[in-house]
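Box 3.1 A note on notation
Throughout this textbook, protein chains are presented in two layers. The first layer is the amino acid sequence; the second is a token string describing backbone geometry. Keep the layers aligned when reading.
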Amino acid sequence: MAVLEVRGLTTVYKTQNGDALALDCLDLDLDKGEMLGLIGESGCGKTTAGYSILRSIKYPGVILQGTVRLAGTDLAQLSEAELRKHLWKEIAMIPQCAMNALNPSHKINSQIFEAIEVHEPKTPKNEIQARIDTLLNSVGLNSRWKDSYPHKLSGGMKQRVVIAMALACNPKIIIADEATTGLDVLVQAQIMALLKKIQIEHDLGILLISHDLAMVSQVCERIGIMYAGSLVELGSTDRILENALHPYTKALLTSQVSLHGIHKIVKPIEGIVPSLTEKFIGCKFRDRCKHRRELCGIEMPKLEEIERGHWCACHFSRELGDVIHG
């Protein structure tokens, strides 16, 4: 059952060259207890999607339309005061670059304490302190670190603190935006394992935003592929890895090194993501697609369910499936 339902979510950034369409009519569901990966190159709209769902986009970003239903409540229709009641308690975020997310002038304890006290003002202070100890232990940190300033902690430890803060008010959903940015490979693996552990133990819905398809495929039940602000493919992780239907998804798969395929030939994706200020008529990926045809420059493909639970936005996804994988 979907605990988060996003429909038609559209966000632009105001620029001197016109509106940059960063998020184009996003439709997305996240089930309770599910980890869904949102993948794509830089500039594809992944982070914008996360902040738009939370209504945390700041000018020059502007949300034009769309609904975001969280357990039946449309966050898009709430006032700022009403929205704050849902943030942290219902839905929380692990921001990109957690090393810069903590206030360097305050100890860890006071930062987590404030997050809880603001959203649960009636909770006794001794209960908050006990919860902080439990939170830090749950993310693999000794509670004694709560009396330290952020600069005393390593990058991986800071990341664990930010995860603990996201869990502080027991939300139903966590949006993790590039949760391993700036960390070495070993710590990245530890953080991914921690997120998976938390997902299972707390029955959380987690939207995991990343550019690393190989890493996300290890922990996510489903994967969504974004390109130039649009969701172009969505399906179970096994389906995406074994039977990718969109040419862009296939290009992503062949452009990344796999731990299970050390002898595979890595092929870069030629070209760049198009300017988001461009007024698209046809498929956004057409200029980089070796399978493009005349229709691709005339009509933009819609995201359609090609087979149960597997969605793709390509005019020729059904017939290209065999060609791509042949």
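The chain is about 30% helix and 25% strand. Residues 120 and 169 are 8 Å apart (CA to CA).
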